[in-house]
Prior knowledge:
It is a single chain. The chain is α/β, with parallel strands linked by helices and 185 residues long. Helices cover 35% and strands 15% of the residues. The protein has 6 helices and 6 strands. It has helices at 31-40, 61-77, 104-112, 128-136, 149-158, 172-180; strands spanning 2-5, 44-50, 84-88, 122-125, 140-144, 167-169. The chain has a 6-stranded parallel sheet with strand order 3-2-1-4-5-6, sandwiched between helices.
Amino acid sequence: xxxxxxxxxxxxxxxxxxxxxxxxxxxxxxxxxxxxxxxxxxxxxxxxxxxxxxxxxxxxxxxxxxxxxxxxxxxxxxxxxxxxxxxxxxxxxxxxxxxxxxxxxxxxxxxxxxxxxxxxxxxxxxxxxxxxxxxxxxxxxxxxxxxxxxxxxxxxxxxxxxxxxxxxxxxxxxxxxxxxxxxxx
Length: 185
Ligand SMILES: [Mg+2]
Ligand SMILES: [Zn+2]
């Protein structure tokens, strides 16, 4: 199965402040191991991440590459692999087509894997815009309670995403436990 992850608040710690360097990029406990476990079970991993910090001038693409090198090396050290990272470097006012909740990043991922569509893939995020983007392209939306996740969960109760059945886990590790157990999915 193709599993698409948001980055900030799903894989790495996120408190609402921009992550501007590899040193500031700190994995959430268990997230790296979870990605490796998913890989070893035969799943493919892609990341779709909004990075408007580039448009805002907080860091450049070299800085982002350094964060992603760190991420990928940590995953590889656990025996896993991230197949593809799609990021949106634009400002919310740029009217691009890739910034989630729009679907451009997910279309890049679809094309990278030469897929007709993303039906049946899983989109995991901590923010409503992740779940909306995933739902729009037919992914099953999964919310984690790390990063923005608790806030997102509260707001989803009040204002659900029409037509979306959002499954919720405490963190990426718990999602992985469920997916890899016979009962979970
Ligand atoms: Mg996030
Ligand atoms: Zn964009």
